């Protein structure tokens, strides 16, 4: 696939406001009759809203999980997807956008062509119980994945999903990160090279901050007080490591950048999602300190939500040419 990829170096590149990536399968409104055919249980949650349109209550965690199962089955052929009630439930369309923009990033380093070599390998940091990025990444582009997490129970659930999808299981390796303080160390092995790394880091700095964020989301959905709802923790819940860490996303990403400098030639593009624009100056300073060869910031927009990814590489043009020749 040949595409034209814009330059995004050291600045936020604009995207069409409120639109998914052009290759994202989840454009427009949900086709609920079709999705119910893929996941019959979704029909129990679909109602006609105040605008006369079919929808679900997005504050209902069971409804959101049923929608995710339907989307993954209908669009990617993924069977048996489920997560425990205490784990974070990812919005599938937004997660797919990150994958597609990373494909563009690779194409920008490969004369506009998205590499689909059998040697392609991606490292997903903090895959969680949902394993969403490897599932979409392999389904869309045939990339192999190593998916890591510090939580053994989350990886056990991810393995259950893979067991239900034997074709994907051959291409997705789950790996426990033995040290909660480490990111790459302990999971990147001596004989491994990755074309991409990706991460959706915990973005809150404390449990209190995470709770406030959940409260705002509930209010945006028309709920007066999340504390009055029996299931308030479920849809916007998640394990601690999924939602917050000491210092928030800035501290986590800075640590990721520092560790990436210890394996500079083992990966072509390191990357991470960045939730808060206020985090960017600190990230750029950290990238400067480790002397990356190049970094790019790519803006993403889904509805009212604004996000971005930051990617960096230590490889110079000669090294990049050698990488393309050997792996792509």
From TrEMBL:
UniProt xrefs under NCBIfam families: PRK11727.1 (NF008725)
CDD domains (UniProt xref): AdoMet_MTases (cd02440)
Entry's localization field: Cytoplasm
Enzyme Commission number(s): 2.1.1.181
Annotated catalysed reactions: adenosine(1618) in 23S rRNA + S-adenosyl-L-methionine = N(6)-methyladenosine(1618) in 23S rRNA + S-adenosyl-L-homocysteine + H(+)
Gene3D superfamilies: Vaccinia Virus protein VP39
Any GO CC annotation of this UniProt entry: cytoplasm
Family statement: Belongs to the methyltransferase superfamily. METTL16/RlmF family.
Function: Specifically methylates the adenine in position 1618 of 23S rRNA.
Broad class of enzyme this protein falls into: transferase
Name of the protein in question: Ribosomal RNA large subunit methyltransferase F
GO biological process entries: rRNA base methylation
């Amino acid at each position: 696939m040949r595409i034209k990829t814009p330059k995004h170096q050291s600045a936020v590149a604009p995207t069409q406001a409120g639109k998914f990536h052009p290759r994202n399968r989840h454009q427009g409104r949900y086709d609920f009759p079709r999705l119910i055919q893929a996941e019959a249980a979704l029909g129990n949650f679909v109602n006609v809203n105040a605008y006369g349109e079919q929808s679900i209550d997005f504050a209902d965690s069971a409804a959101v999980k049923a929608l995710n199962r339907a989307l993954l089955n209908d669009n990617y052929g993924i069977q048996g997807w489920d997560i425990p009630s205490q784990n974070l439930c990812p919005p599938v369309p937004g997660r797919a956008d990150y994958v597609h923009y990373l494909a563009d990033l690779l194409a920008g380093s490969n004369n506009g062509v998205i590499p689909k070599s059998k040697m392609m390998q991606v490292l997903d940091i903090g895959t969680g119980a949902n394993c969403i990025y490897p599932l979409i990444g392999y389904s869309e582009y045939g990339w192999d994945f190593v998916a890591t997490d510090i939580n053994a129970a989350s990886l056990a659930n991810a393995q259950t999903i893979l067991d239900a999808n034997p074709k994907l299981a051959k291409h997705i390796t789950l790996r426990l990160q033995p040290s909660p303080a480490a990111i790459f160390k302990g999971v990147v092995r001596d004989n491994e090279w990755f074309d991409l790394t990706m991460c959706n880091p915990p973005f809150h700095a404390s449990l209190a901050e995470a709770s406030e964020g959940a409260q705002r989301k509930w209010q945006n959905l028309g709920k007066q007080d999340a504390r009055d709802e029996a299931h308030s923790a479920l849809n916007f819940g998640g394990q601690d490591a999924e939602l917050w860490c000491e210092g928030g996303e800035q501290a986590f990403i800075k640590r990721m950048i520092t560790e990436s400098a210890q394996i500079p030639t083992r990966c072509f593009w390191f990357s991470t999602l960045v939730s808060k624009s206020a985090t960017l100056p600190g990230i750029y300073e950290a990238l400067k300190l480790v002397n990356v060869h190049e970094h790019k910031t790519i803006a993403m927009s889904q509805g009212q939500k604004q996000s971005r990814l930051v990617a960096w590489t230590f490889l110079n043009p000669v090294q990049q040419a050698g990488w393309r020749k050997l792996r792509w």
